Amino acid sequence: MSDKTSGSGSTCFALPGWSAVTLRGEQATAFAQAQFMGDLSDLAPGRWQWNGWLTPKGRLVALFALLALDGRDLALLLPDADPEAFVAALTRFRFRTRVEIAHEGGWSFAGRFSAPEAARGAAASGSVDGGGLELDFGGDGGPRTLRIAASPVPADEAQAARWRREDLAHGLPRLAPGQAEQWTPQQLSLERLRAFSVHKGCYPGQEIVARTHFLGQAKRGLVRLAGDQTLAVAPVAAVDAPGRALGQVVSVAGDQALAVMPLDAGDGPFHVQGVACTPLPLLDGLAR
């Protein structure tokens, strides 16, 4: 695969913050099905889904794109997580399961604002060592391609910043490692990405996730905010309404942010460290 598309001339640029962890072995899928919050039972080779790993108390350790490489091996594509720490933590639960868990440090991530050559929806195309692996990251905001290859591509800070803004616009929370184990899937509105299951068998945190779902106890979710200037704030900055603190910022990109807020927060006005913010609708189309 070329680093340029034939139609639009869009060029690949490096995507910082992404890493890959592989689960390989005859019991890799069974191990993932028992540990992760998404249902892998119908995930065919070459297809991917959003998924994640929870604590027993139902708090998100990491969110990732999970790709079935073939009939047995899996790749976890992690935005923002520390891959070595993730591998070490997950390995502690391997016990006697026949699965090898490894950080693929030689995989390089790139983005492109055009449609993939062959990947569509949840179907990936290509391979890392065979010219590049492509995933369709397009949604209502337009086409995007996530590309993974053995060779890095040049950095472009402006394009990478635009990519991050579009992640947030589609409701994909970009969580710094310090936010691990803080949020439930419902607080991050991960049902929009179909990232967790309330029907499959047991996994860490499953009881809390299912109870919240079936009893209708989710009171908070993601809200997309647009500031009237750049939001130079750290995650977990407070979102204020007149006279009260209303929520917390979880991701920032330029003048936009995702915040965990009450589902009935209304239309504002809101402020984040003095910056006036307006709620915007989340874009659809990134669920897989």
TrEMBL record:
This is Folate-binding protein YgfZ. InterPro entries: CAF17_C, TrmE/GcvT-like, YgfZ/GCV_T_CS, YgfZ/GcvT. Keywords: Transit peptide. It comes from Luteimonas wenzhouensis. GO terms for biological process: iron-sulfur cluster assembly. Residues 219-279 form the CAF17 C-terminal domain. Pfam families: Beta-barrel_CAF17_C. NCBIfam families: ygfZ_signature.
